[in-house]
Amino acid sequence: MAVTDQLAKPLESTHQMGRFTLNRIVRQDAAVTKPIAWANVEAIVAISIGEPTFRYTYDQHQQGAGDEANEIKRDPRWNGTVTVLAGQIGDFIAAIEGKTWGTAQAVMSARMDSDNPMVHWEAICRDADNSTHLFSLVIQDMIIDSFGFDNPMDYSDRSIPFHTYHEPFILAQGYEMVFDKFAATPTTSTYTLSCSTPATLLTATEHDDWDFNNAVFIKNEDHSAGDVTGRRVRAAVSITAASLIFTAGLPAATDEVSVLYAKAT
Amino acid sequence: MAVRATEIIEDCQRCIEALIAKLCSTTVPWTSWTSTLGRPETDRWELASSFIYTMEPYFVEITGQQQGGSSLAIYEVIIGTWNNRKSGGAEEINIMTSRIQNLFQVPATWSTAFTITINSVVFTDTTLRAQGIGILGITGARQIETEEKKEFRNEQTLRFIA
To answer: What is the ipTM of this complex?
Structure first.
C-alpha cells in the first residue's frame, strides 16, 4: 500500500438497496419443531435501527490508577422502526403475533403491553438479481411497541416502532439463520439440532451478551412457571456439531428449549 | 465485472442489447422480434419483423463516490420498439413496449443469462449484474412520430448504474 494508491470503482453491488431485500420472521413462541419455518413478511418499505442506549452508564475508577477511568455500560436497548405499506398494518401485526386477522380474530390492536420477545427478524439483503445473497441483517428478540394510526389521502406507509434488548447484527454472505425448538424430556441432556454444522458466529469471550461461539442464544421456557418466551441459558450448555448438550440444569418436563443459530445456505 | 471503464459506453450498450437479443432468439413472444445494436443498418422495411433497438448509453451523473479512487456513475440509454407493419400493429407495439418495461422492472427477468464477448473474453451465461450493470428503472414509452400512420414506434429510457 502506498500513499499514491488509486482505488478501483466500487462494485455495482455496493449500491445495495432495500428493494432487493427479503424480510422474514420466526416467532419466539412458535410451536415446537425443528427447524421452524421462516415466514416471509410482505409490504415492508424500510427497516431502521438506531444506535443503542444504555440504562446505566458510569465511569469506574480505582484508587492508585490515577485518572484512568473504565466506562461501564449496562442494559442496552436498540430502538427502531419497521415501515409498512399502510394498508397492510393489520396483516403485519397478525404475522408478528401469530394470529389470523379476520374470521378468527376481527381486531388487531396497536397496543402492545408485553415486553416479551415476539419475533426474530432476518432481512436478507440480495444483489440486484433479487437472488445473490450479500449479507443479512438479523434482529433478535424483536418487540413491537404500541403505535398509532392515520389515514392520509394518498399512497402512504406507516412506521411501526420496535425495540430489542439484544444486539442486531449482520450475517455474512452465504449464511442463513436457523431456529430450532424442542420439547424437553426430563433427564435428557442432549438434543439434536436440525443442522449438523452450525456456523461459527464469533468469539463469544470477546463480545458482551454472547454466550456461545456457534449460537446467538439458547433459551429455556419454563412452562410450569408460566414462562412462554424463554430465558437465556448462559452456562452449562454447549453445541458440538448437531448436539445441544446440557451439563447442568437439565430442562424439565414441560419446558421448551429454543436455539437460534446460523448455517451455510 | 467485465465492462471496461475506458469503453463503458460500448460495453454497456452491447451487454444490454445482448440481453434483449437473447430473449428475441429464445423466448416467446420476443422471438417475433429482432434486436439491433443501435438503429438497423438496413432500411426498416427490409427487416422481416418488428424490432427493438438499443441506442448508445450516455453519462448522467457520478454516484456512489468513494474516497481515494474511482466512482460508479449513472447512465441512461434509449431502447426503442418499432413496428414496421410486418405484423401486429397497435397491439404488437403495445406488447413490445410492455415487455421491455417488464423486463427492466422485474429483477428475475433482467437477470436472464446471455453470452457476450468483451475485450476478446467470452462470458457465457452471464448477466447484467455480473457484468457490473445495475438496473435502476425504466420510463414509460414516448411515442415517436412515423412516416406511415399504420407504423408504430416508441422509445423508453433505461436508467442504470455502472
So the answer is: 0.78
